[in-house]
Amino acid sequence: MAAILPQGYTRLFLPAYQRDENAPRLPLFGYTAVAFMDGQLWVAAQRTDELEKWDPRFYNTPELPGLIAAKLGAHPENRILKQLAHCAREYHCFTAQNIFYGRWEGGVPVSPSCNAQCLGCISKQVSECCPSPQERITFAPTVDEVVAVGLPHLVTDEAILSFGQGCEGEPLLAGKVIKEAITIIRQKTEAGTININTNAGLPTVLEELAVAGLNTARISLFSADPEYYRFYHQPQGYTLDQVGEAICRLEQHGVFVSLNLLTLPGFTDREAQIERLFAFLHKHPVGMIQIRNLNIDPDYVWAHLRQEKLVSAGEALGIAGFLAELKREFPKLTVGNYSRAHRGGV
Predict the structure, then answer these.
(1) What is the C-alpha separation between 207 and 218, in angstroms, rounded?
(2) pTM for the predicted model, two decimal places
(3) pLDDT, tens digit, for every residue of 148-178?
């Protein structure tokens, strides 16, 4: 038995399991330990964010189908909106739904390709793996398509236009389109936040977006140890050094940077991993750590770690212990799970 946690909760322990010899690889979810006590089921988790906007009661509402139909009717040729309608209806994606609700963080997928091959990629897996929970877009949007979706979304200070969604590859590979779209949007409005979720493997492209008007960036990280970083992300044509360089470039332009820390109990909370992460953060300061429960079969990860002869050293403090140490070492650092609206330099 395992649980899948709602957003805003961080997994503390993995479920116990015994693997059959020919057991298939589990689908890409964040499996969490479950216990039974005092007549109730309990999960091993800690509340780490309380941003009400992501409460499920605000999504999948009765009016959503009508809102989707209306926006598609107004822009029948826009392929991004068709993709978002699919994601909103089939995957119940909150950032896709927000585009149709016209509020908060709305996602705009732009890239069908990627320059990494992350073990837990949720949009594209090799054929022998488990099915990806989301289908990656198969087209390269135009600047006009991006602007048609993004400009009407940025009408309040709480609005976030977010590139780099679960249904796409690496958005920086579509950097030219994003840059032109941001330039046009910012010529017409200063409202809201323009964000990118990225692996930051192309620092110069990211800096160009910052100059154009990017406000925030969330950078995914499995480990601040170069070996473990390569092991999980399998970057193509860049290294962890480029990620650090990107953070420095963004800071110079007043872009608010978050690390999207892919968290795995028994790994992330190891002493050696914590030391590496803290050293990275001291060298490349960021404004926020967003804790993400790594969606993957834990047995698959550990089997690959053993095959690669990578064994994370030191004692495991537990995820709760790791979070406490993080706050102790960086008391001004925001730790949570959700992106915030944030204008660069403010």
Answers:
(1) 14
(2) 0.94
(3) 999 999 999 999 999 999 889 999 999 999 9
